[in-house]
Design brief:
The protein has 526 residues and is of the alpha/beta class.
Length: 526
């Protein structure tokens, strides 16, 4: 039902098999309004979307007998994969709807939906904990009640995770949901109001807490998230599918989506895009169209932008560059930077799901403090701290500044200078110190990613502090192994002086009782 093809961070490219075709994830399901669809479905399909979502409750209210007889594909006029929501959004808006939970389950079966959702109870944003707990318990109760109908059903059934902003309830709901059989897909419910206010960090926390618990072999859906600016962050945490009406809602409000923000049509002198719509029309020409014409063209542009972002995300996953895409996108808007900081708190989860090896290896880019938390860095530092052992015969250490520009370090100019400077260098354990990686033993320096990286040549104080701490901890751990530390400094490296001051200070404070370690400092200029 769900086959994972590529992985990077906790994100994945996968294939969802349905009775009406394959869906490649990550993907956004455009919302189709069966009462008033202003963009022809074929135009949506032509952009690249091959799966859509519509509201089973509204279909039932409008067409009932016809829909139950003909099925959702003929009602909509599309023979590809169709997901149906159950009417929970109407509950969120109006408090209740006039349909029984199991009635909507049976209706979706008769409509022949490919992916169907039980009638959950969404968690409104402004409710207290007790009311939020009710939405979780009632959703779980309905999920169990529906089992007698879905046990032998061929379609994919979705179990929504409720709880809203209460992360303890999210964890509880995910834990309970994971033990309910026959649901082959999960969803995070009720984020619409948060998304509308750009409270992306809250959404990150909700998804992160659910993802810690839910089975990794089943796809995860997020309702209502369709603006491209937040998509890569949610994919990086493991969301596979989304649905959104943003493309048409923004268009009705004369708003123009870009990957990092939204513009008003009236404020644009030219379109910052080269999609087929923006290549053919100017903003003024669109403004001169009828209201209907404006909405259609803006909606099509918005869809092109959303789909282009999905392609960028999938390309980043294939190349192992999703983290770099996050760093790039996080600087586009303050809410995205805040979301990135929230995502970093889940670095252990991300490292857990990130593959240790990829088919095509690319060098990694290290930009800022946030790069300290990318999986390759976390994994390497864990190895040094927990598993690495220095060569038993090399009892003297020489600390050599690592070159930011020359790789591998074992062939850099600095090592040539050190070999000439130190008479007994072959009897010393050569250890490179360099920002982000902190400690690179000579025997590892040609392994990935230690010889395939690009980094900022002006590391922050935080990066230097962590490097100092790591070196101190390393020599404290192996204090009985080494009896001398020789530090090489390179006056041509801008960050060396700051590092050296901190390192010497910390050595005096934290290694003062280790009398068997002598600290000798020399320079490549001597």
């Amino acid at each position: 039902m769900f086959e994972i093809k590529e992985k990077d961070l906790a994100g994945r490219i996968g294939i969802i098999e349905t009775r009406h075709g394959r869906i490649t994830t990550p993907i956004v399901f455009p919302v189709i309004n069966i009462i008033k669809q202003e963009v022809p479905i074929q135009d949506i399909v032509n952009i690249g979307f091959n799966a859509i979502i519509t509201n089973a409750y509204l279909v039932l209210k409008r067409f009932r007998d016809k829909a139950l007889k003909l099925g959702i594909h003929k009602i909509i006029g599309y023979n590809g994969p169709i997901m149906t929501d159950s009417g929970a959004y109407q509950i969120l808006q109006y408090g209740t709807i006039d349909v029984e939970p199991n009635e909507i389950v049976l209706a979706q079966q008769r409509m022949n939906s490919d992916i169907a959702v039980i009638l959950d109870i969404p968690t409104p944003e402004n409710v207290d904990w007790n009311k939020a707990k009710y939405t979780v318990d009632e959703t779980l109760r309905r999920a169990k009640s529906a089992l007698k109908y879905i046990e032998d059903d061929e379609r994919i059934w979705v179990l929504p995770i409720q709880g809203g902003k209460y992360l303890d309830l999210i964890r509880y709901a995910a834990k309970e949901a994971a033990h309910i059989p026959y649901y082959n897909m999960y969803a995070i419910g009720s984020p619409t109001q948060l998304l509308e206010r750009y409270e992306y960090s809250t959404i990150i926390n909700i998804v992160g807490e659910a993802k810690r618990i839910l089975p990794p072999d089943k796809p995860l859906h997020l309702f209502g998230a369709g603006h491209p600016m937040i998509l890569p962050f949610l994919v990086a945490l493991g969301v596979d599918t989304f649905d959104s009406a943003s493309y048409i809602l923004y268009a009705r409000d004369r708003r123009y989506i870009t990957p990092s923000r939204t513009h008003r049509l009236d404020e644009l002198e030219e379109f910052p895009c080269s999609c087929p719509i923006c290549s053919k029309y100017t903003p003024q020409e669109v403004r001169e169209l009828s209201r209907r014409g404006q909405v259609k063209l803006l909606a099509l542009h918005n869809l092109y932008v959303i789909y282009e972002e999905l392609k960028k995300i999938r390309t980043a996953i294939r190349e192992g560059r999703l983290w770099e895409l996050l760093e790039e996108r996080s600087r586009a808007h303050p809410s995205l930077y805040k979301a990135f900081k929230a995502l970093i708190k889940y670095y252990n989860l991300i490292e857990k799901y990130d593959p240790t090896s990829k088919g095509i290896v690319h060098g990694i880019f290290l930009y800022s403090d946030e790069s300290l938390y990318r999986p390759e860095i976390i994994r390497y530092r864990n190895f040094i701290n927990k598993l690495y052992q220095p060569p038993p015969r090399l009892r003297k250490a020489v600390l050599i500044p690592g070159s930011i520009t020359e790789k591998p370090l074992s062939r850099s100019k600095i090592i040539e200078t050190v070999n000439k400077m130190i008479r007994d260098v072959d009897r010393r354990h050569k250890i490179y110190y360099i920002p982000f990686f902190n400690i690179i033993p000579h025997e590892l320096c040609e392994t990935y990613p230690l010889s395939q990286f690009e980094m900022n040549d002006n590391p922050s104080q935080t990066v230097l502090n962590i490097m100092v701490d790591n070196l101190i901890e390393y020599f404290k751990k192996w204090s009985k192994h080494y009896n001398e530390i020789l530090i090489i400094i390179d006056v041509n490296s801008s960050w060396i002086k700051d590092f050296l001051k901190m390192f010497i200070r910390e050595v005096k404070m934290k290694l003062k009782d280790l009398n068997n370690i002598d600290l000798i400092i020399t320079s490549t200029t001597n």
